[in-house]
Amino acid sequence: MLNYILRRVLQSVLVLLVVGLVAFAMFRFVGDPVETMLGQERTVGDIERLREQLGLNKPFFIQYWEFLVRAVQGDLGISYRQGRPVAEIIAERLPATLELAFVSGLFALGLGIILGIFTAIRRDGFAANAIMTLSLIGVSLPTFLIGILLIYVFSVELSLLPSFGRGDVVDLGWWTTGFLTPSGLVALILPAITLGLYQMTLIMRLVRSEMLEVLRQDYIRFARARGLSQKAVNFRHALKNTLVPVITVTGLQLGSIIAFAIITETVFQWPGVGLLFINAIQFVDIPVMAAYLMLISVMFVGINLAVDLLYVAIDPRLRN
Amino acid sequence: MTDLSDNTVQAGRARSRLAMAWDSDLAYSFRRSPVAMISGLVTALLILSAVFAPLIAPHDPFNPGTLNLMNGFTPPSEANMFTGDSFWLGTDDQGRDVFSTILFGLRISLFVGFAAVALAMVIGITLGLVAGYIGGLTETVIMRVADVQLTFPSILVAMLIFGIAKGITPPEYRDQMAIWVLILAIGLSDWVQFARVVRGATLVEKSKEYVAAARLIGRSPVAIMLRHILPNVLSPVLVIATISLALAIIAEATLSFLGVGAPPTEPSLGTLIRIGQGFLFSGEWWILFFPAMTLLALALSVNLLGDWLRDALNPRLR
User: Fold this and answer.
1) Cα(B121)–Cα(B244) distance, integer angstroms
2) Thinking of the domain B33-76+88-317, which architecture would CATH place it in?
3) Which of chain A's residues have a Cβ under 8 Å away from the Cβ of B303?
């Protein structure tokens, strides 16, 4: 047990070190930082002095180590394009992405479980079949087309919802939130649906198949035989046993929600880290790209590790 | 039914390859599935129109000499109010015929899709064969790298590779190289599936007698991997390749839509949708609608074809 946990933690640290190496290599070898910072008018002496200052004449692994130490301390370099510390820019943008991810996760989980139960209980009904077919089509649509479709219907044709931006936000000092203003809340609706739709169908299908599996079990038949109401059987006995896989899948999908936020944020011009990353690629802003890579790796590896450890905590069979 | 009885009559004689293909299990299941037939037809139609785009397209969208700015924003199948010209699917802001740009965009989308899957296949099959056949530390390293890459969504990996490659290319070559960089990015982001499946199948084949026999007569490991094992692990690869093609087409469209893919000078379907999105609010819906529908038809039919192929080649599901 302890052995397993230790091994998983070590593996995660190794992955992060490798990602750090990739990020560092990007810094060091994609474009010459000295070239970028000095410009046309420079002497050999200037180049030498700057190399000394930036520590570029030290051995590779010492530089890598210093890079990691700085990254852990929150010094992620300076954006080539905006000329400001990358950590500051990301801290500014992160609340927008996290709020969007949170709302779409909530949407995916809530509606996914409800529709999953519905389609499992009414498995041959017309509505259930219609939902399943629609979900199939929804999964094969690229995310950005779903976003455009929603904008077309709800913003252009019906003029009900805003098509871009976060609306008015309230500044709490270290966090800006759209949850406290009406326009902020309304602005969340379309992006959250776009981002959460794929995960919603995934959770719905999972809950449905798990429910169908569980409803076939003997203890459900026994519960029915005891004369319990349909509602008590479905929700108290069946639903509980379907939720373990749902929790783990939701955990793992949290990472993809944050990654796919890049697409949604671009469609809706949502001022989050995803849009920042896309702009960084377009303008070859290496420090921002490297920082985003490290940020998202820490999230992914952390989530994976947490889910693996949660497995062990939930399922006693894995403990040996 | 008639050709079935015909074939029983000719059973003793040598039959043409075409007839054998027609009689195969795969072709039989294809003829029995309307979904497979329709999606196959749509895919074939789209591929053919992409290949013959220069012959079919009524205008050359990349030749500025044939464009007339006065023709801009002509609605589909209506006469332009200045020039009187009419275009089947309308024109965009610069007077380019939407139908022609779609045909040429389709060409780029399909080219990138096929090339990226081919790259992913070559890398994945090679590493999968090596990992499965040689084993040991080589296998551990290859599969660990695959595991790590699988932790990240492939679209993110593709974006990152695109960004790095763009950083390495000198600015003046960036637009020219964009298509190749795109192929590299999508190909490198998608090899893991191939490697995993080929490795698994290789592990099974490795212990069979024909491999031992080949080793006994002294064939080199490379020859055993390529000539003996590879042909026997290809059918699952075919299924993954078809599904990968659909994913690669969507990935290409997504990257180009985000502005980190095909440049406006060589627009793919994704680039066209990106351009069209700008006219969504001003009412010129056709600039966005037709490229989007084409992309949808392409992705959906290739996807359905892949699903059918998976079921048809997997005897356990029958």
Assistant:
1) 10
2) Orthogonal Bundle (1.10)
3) 140
Q: What type of residue sits at position A112? A: G
Is the CB of A281 less than 8 angstroms away from the CB of B288? no
B292 touches chain A (CB under 8 A): yes
d(CA B76, CA A40): 52
Please, what are the domains in chain A?
Answer: 95-282 (1.10.3720.10)
Kindly state the average pLDDT of the residues A91-113.
Answer: 91
* B152 contacts A286? CB cut-off 8 A: no
Q: Are B257 and B271 in contact (CB under 8 A)?
A: yes
Q: Report the residue from A30, A140, A262 with minimal CB separation from B303.
A: A140
For residue range A240-286, list pLDDT tens digits in order: 777 777 877 777 788 788 888 999 999 999 998 999 999 888 888 88
Which residues in B lie closer than 8 A to residue A293 (C-beta atoms)? 160
Q: What pTM was computed for the model?
A: 0.83
pLDDT of res. B122: 95
Does the predicted interface ipTM exceed a cut of 0.90? no
Contact B163 A263 (CB under 8 A): no
Q: Report helix angle A286-314 to B154-168, nearest 10.
A: 160
Residues B260-284 as b/e (b if ≥16 CB within 10 A, e otherwise) read: bbbbeebbbbbbbbbbbbebbeeeb
Closest partner residue to B250 among A142, A293, A304, by Cβ?
A142
